[in-house]
Amino acid sequence: MPLPAEARATPRATGRAVAPALLLLLLLSAVRATAPPRPLLPLQPSMPHVCAQQQLTLVGHRRPCVKALSRMVSVWKPGCGRQAWCIGHER
Fold this sequence. Notes:
Layout: H1 11-34, E1 73-80, E2 83-90
Antiparallel strand pairs: 1-2
Signal peptide: 1-33
Keywords: Signal
């Protein structure tokens, strides 16, 4: 299937077409970077997603009490089934 003439463009001709577009893109980004930022408008009750009233609520979060396992101590416990004594672990 033969390619159309536009698709058979040489890399050099393609580079010539891309260079002005790239230059324009860099120029626009440089102009935007040097422009001063616009001041933000203060929130108004008529704006979407803005509530007319304010409400403050305190929310508590539970934290689990985590203790290190290095504080575990081996102790002998009586009455462990078939054995009279066995080793248990306590903090």
